Amino acid sequence: MVNYIEAATAPSKNTGAIRLYGSDAFAGMRKACQLTARCLDELADIVAPGVPTDTIDRFVFEYGMDHGAYPATLNYRGYMKSSCTSINHVVCHGIPNDKPLREGDIVNIDVTYVLDGWHGDSSRMYPVGEIKRSAERLLEVTYESLMRGIAAVRPGARTGAIGEAIQTYAEAERCSVVRDFCGHGVGSLFHDSPNILHYGRASEGPELREGMIFTIEPMINLGRPHVKVLGDGWTAVTRDRSLSAQYEHTVGVTATGCEIFTLSPGGLDRPGLPPMQG
Q1: Which among 123, 108, 121 has a CA at the least distance from the CA of 71?
Q2: In terms of domain of life, where is this protein from (predicted)?
């Protein structure tokens, strides 16, 4: 049985109950999420061949500090960086280091800032210089998968509607959906209930209710969906070494649909790709 609880009275830990937030929380999330979105906008001018991912991570840390926010990943369960930078066949949780990006790479940068107790969580893909058409197509399919998942969010639907929308589209485009990682509740906690699967059936999962806040963050592979985690305990890669991509937004369920908290203020939700048609 799924339990729902008013967030204002909920304990400060994940109990498995789904929090329902009010207008004050939505206002706080807008601020935290827009700070994350602005940081990701700034990174569009930093990502380039020859730039180490450590440089990106240092910028994320300093940008947060300059704006009164703290990177949620820093010291989280032993993770020692302010962001995740996942390159090419890395699915998620890539650890920034001193290795420079190369022409033709694709990199996902995942940032979560804590601002006034609220967690703004988002990620985007960045092409590094000129990329192959197959990589560009993967980015296009992954972004469209995210937006189709978001379009399924409305009160009365189930979380499975999000997964069905993503899976149906991605697989029709001859790509695969990673099963090992999922979206999650977010707000006053970094990771909370419910889990948001990126595959499934519309009739499955908890009912979506006004006031829920969560991430949608599909990981889409050009090859098979299977992944493995490397010996560092964090870095997840495709088993067949095929390219992987991910975009992520934080959304809140409203009376009529949802609000996307992490939209780019600069129109850079898919940096480096041509403008969407229509």
Answers
A1: 121
A2: Bacteria
Side-chain half-sphere CA neighbours of 215 within 13 A? 27
3-class SS shares of the chain: helix, strand, coil, % to 5 = 25, 25, 45
Cα-based angle 43, 215, 127 (whole degrees, multiple of 5): 30
- DSSP-based three-state secondary structure for 96: coil
Interval 60-116: pLDDT, tens: 999 999 999 999 999 999 999 999 999 999 999 999 999 999 999 999 999 999 999
Query: Rounded to 5 degrees, what are φ and ψ at 167?
Result: -60, -45
Residue 273 burial by Cβ neighbours in a 10 Å radius (0-12, 13-18, 19+) = middle
Tens digits of residue pLDDT in 140-162: 999 999 999 999 999 999 999 99
What residue numbers does the annotated binding site for substrate cover?
93, 191
Q: What is the DSSP letter of 79?
A: B
Closest to 236 in 3D by CA, of 90, 77, 85: 90
> What span, in angstroms and rounded, lies between the C-alpha atoms of 175 and 178?
10
Annotated binding site: 93, 110, 121, 184, 191, 217, 248
Q: Known binding site for a divalent metal cation: residues?
A: 110, 121, 184, 217, 248
Question: Dihedral (C-alpha) 236, 127, 68, 76: value to the nearest 10 degrees?
Answer: 0
